[in-house]
Amino acid sequence: MIIVSGNPAGPSQPAVIVSQDDEAAIRALEDRFAAAFNAGDIDAIMKNYLQDKSLVVFDVVPRKQYLGADVYRKDWEEFFTHFRGRPKIAIMDLSITVDGNLGFSHSFQHVTGTDTQGHPVDRTVRVTDGYRKIGGNWLIVLEHISVPVDLKTGKADSLYPYSYSPG
Fold first, then answer.
1. CB-based contacts of 161, cutoff 8 Å, min separation 6
2. What is the pLDDT of residues 11-36, one digit of tens each?
3. Which domains are assigned to the chain?
4. CB of 79 within 8 A of CB of 71?
5. Are 109 and 147 in contact (CB under 8 A)?
6. Rounded CA gap, 62 and 31, in Å?
7. Measured at the alpha carbon of residue 38, what is the angle toward residues 35 and 28, in degrees to the nearest 5?
8. E strand or H helix at 13
9. Residue 10 pLDDT
10. Which ranges constitute the DSSP H helices of the chain?
11. Are 139 and 55 in contact (CB under 8 A)?
12. 0.70 exceeded by the pTM?
């Protein structure tokens, strides 16, 4: 645990306590999410999310916005019906920031599988998650899933290569 005795916000603000364990705990949450996704285990997927009506998820597919854990669970149930067998996910370039009981991350998530018509599915999306530490446990409280859009065509732009670093 790292304790910062001063606060750049000013002397009237309390000291900030940052734990390296918090980043590791969020990384473990994302690992559990990927394992649950790869197993097709919706109950285990949902254990990573806030379990009330205040959960907010913005997705790239219709319905586009999900308010509440019960609504989002139904989306997962419907999602898996579009595949033959279990789709797989890999989380890449996960970056995590933690400040007190709040954190956020961004990553690329690569989903592969076979749709119900036998066509291969190979998609990469950008995911930003907001977390809150509740009762000592980190949970996803806000999720935003997106793809870049080619403004000329109005279609999703390929994410390969999925990141760019200027030379």
1. none
2. 454 444 556 899 999 999 999 999 99
3. 2-156 (3.10.450.50)
4. no
5. no
6. 26
7. 15
8. none
9. 47
10. 20-39, 42-46, 69-80
11. no
12. yes
Rg (the chain; Cα; Å): 18
H or E element: which one contains 150? Answer: strand 149-150
Both tokens assigned to 75? 């989306």
Q: Per-residue pLDDT tens for 111-163?
A: 999 999 999 999 999 999 999 999 999 999 999 999 878 788 888 776 554 44
Higher per-residue confidence, 47 vs 7: 47
Question: Is the separation of the CB atoms in 15 and 7 below 8 Å?
Answer: yes
pLDDT attached to residue 6: 40
- The three-class DSSP label of residue 87 is strand
Asked if residues 25 and 138 have their Cβ atoms less than 8 Å apart, the reply is: yes
Residue 10 CA to residue 67 CA, distance in Å, equals 36
Distance CA 117, CA 79 (A): 15
pLDDT at 140: 98
Burial 59-84 (b: 16+ CB within 10 A, else e): beeeeeebebbeebbeebeebbeebe
